[in-house]
Specification:
This protein has 461 residues and is of the alpha/beta class. It has three domains: 48 residues; 240 residues, Metallo-beta-lactamase, Chain A (4-Layer Sandwich), CATH 3.60.15.30; 101 residues, no CATH class. It has 16 helices and 13 strands. The strands form two sheets. It has a seven-stranded mixed β-sheet. Helix 1 packs antiparallel against helix 2, helix 13 runs antiparallel to helix 14 and helix 15 runs antiparallel to helix 16. The longest helix has 28 residues. The structure holds zinc ion.
């Protein structure tokens, strides 16, 4: 309860300082006040995050590293990068809003030269959050042509996205901030990057801004410094390197195109980078190591893509293929972020869209769930739960879960606790299997959330 009050006090006090200093000669003071405001609000918001979170992104300490001469990285939930030149500085990604005040202060201690350009790798909130605080008169904002569309739909669909994202990122607050420095906003872009790419020179450093769509969305751009052979990739590779990627994500964003991703990977491999700097976690070095890892990722996605199309042409169902398609040993990659079976499903849906030609009922707004209560009444809840238990004991937890869901559709609430208890057992075992299997973070967090909801439902009984 005291934390929201703290935020309000911080806004009022620092806001007053901000407005009282409304004078051209006090521009620096205004800026300092705005930075302080963002730091205070950001630090309070950070402390409100739960400690026990998979991935632990929010526990990464905020600090600055010099990755190479004139190349600085401020770390946090997501990173802000600053490349300094004698004619001014260039930023690549500006982090999440709750880290942005700290990033600003720490990087400004390294150089307070004008910010000539801000390059945004894509429109996700954790990469654009510091734009307002960094932007000065004359700063050019550079983003992909598709950034405009991604920024629009992420803004317009924030309540929907937030609800879903909170399940897999449980550290997020309950509702999105609707206004103020932490809100997700539309960012005006000065220079749009197309498939032609965009190159400029500043203070003797060449900056190649590359269109690399297909990984975290069709608005991805990367930055290459050809003299230093440093490649900034935003979220192109995801949080781990190398990994099997999210071909498109179960969080429920726009479809991503698998072949576009492969083409972008080919473009990055051809650059022969000696250092890759992602916008989460640490930089990775070693020319051969980087080339081999990128090639393996490309070949793994190509393999899953080709196998899925082969199966589709042979008339296999998406479920057969989700079960059967596995990475061959020489292409084996961690599936902690992207899962091969979900990759198969997303490739299937990318090409085939919504109608599976499985049942006529798919054409109408009446899901099978609508007749679960009839099944429960005819079979009896106890019979359904007994069969669910048999399936569970026989190593078929998903089949058991289907039957439990039918049992739970009964309006006879007295029968619910037994169904919830069995659901809890099934979910816990599924979580165990996920932890000891691919360890996929999305699957683990989703199952943890379902376990929590089931536990709460049982406690209410
Ligand atoms: Zn990110």
């Amino acid at each position: 309860m005291r934390k929201p009050i703290l935020i309000i006090v911080a806004i009022v006090v620092i806001g007053a300082l901000f407005w009282l200093s409304d004078d051209e000669n006090k521009a620096d003071l205004k800026k300092a006040a705005a930075v302080k405001q963002l730091q205070v609000i950001g630090n309070v918001a950070s402390r409100m995050m739960d400690d026990d979170v998979a991935g632990g992104f929010h526990k990464i300490p905020v600090e600055v590293k010099e990755l190479a001469p004139n190349v600085f990285q401020a770390k946090g939930i997501a990173n802000t990068h600053m490349i300094t030149t004698p004619e001014g500085n260039v930023l690549f990604d500006v982090g999440i809003a709750i880290n942005a005040g700290d990033h600003y202060q720490l990087l400004r201690e390294k150089s307070d030269a004008p910010i000539k350009s801000i390059i945004l790798s894509h429109a996700h909130a954790d990469h654009i959050g510091g734009t307002q605080i960094w932007k000065e008169d004359g700063t050019e904002v550079i983003a992909h042509r598709e950034f405009i569309e991604a920024n629009r739909y992420l803004n317009q669909m924030e309540p929907y996205q937030w609800r879903r994202n909170r399940i897999v990122f449980p550290w997020m607050p309950e509702t999105p901030p609707e206004s103020g420095p932490l809100a997700y906003e539309i960012i005006p872009v000065d220079t749009l990057v197309t498939e032609e790419d965009h190159e400029f020179e500043l203070g003797g450093t060449v900056f190649q801004v590359l269109s690399t769509p297909g990984a975290e969305g069709d608005d991805n751009i990367s930055l290459f410094l050809p003299e230093q052979k440093i490649l900034f990739t935003g979220d192109f590779f995801g949080p781990l390197f190398p990994q099997f990627p999210n071909i498109f994500t179960m969080r429920g964003e726009k479809i991503r195109k698998p072949m576009e991703y492969i083409n972008s990977l080919n473009k990055l491999i051809a650059l022969e980078p000696e250092m890759i700097v992602p916008s989460h976690h640490d930089a990775i070095t070693g020319k051969d190591n980087l080339r081999n890892a990128m090639t393996k990722m490309r070949d793994a996605v190509q393999y899953v893509h080709d196998e899925t199309l082969k199966g589709m042409n042979e008339g296999k169902t998406v479920y057969d293929m989700m079960r059967d398609i596995k990475l061959p040993e020489h292409l084996d990659l961690t599936q902690e972020h992207g899962m091969v079976s979900w990759g198969v499903k997303s490739i299937w849906e990318y090409y085939a869209t919504w109608f599976h030609f499985d049942s006529t009922t798919e054409l109408y707004p009446v899901p099978v769930r609508d007749v679960y209560d009839d099944v429960a009444e005819l079979a009896g809840v106890q019979a359904l739960l007994a069969r669910a238990q048999t399936k569970f004991d026989g190593g078929q937890p998903v089949e058991a879960l289907h039957l439990v869901e039918m049992a739970l559709s009964t309006s006879d609430k007295a029968q619910h606790p037994a169904a919830y208890r069995l659901r809890l057992d099934v979910l816990k075992q599924m979580l165990d299997t996920a932890v000891n299997g691919h360890g996929n973070n999305y699957e683990k967090d989703y199952l943890r959330r379902r376990i929590q909801l089931t536990t709460e439902a049982l406690e209410e009984k």
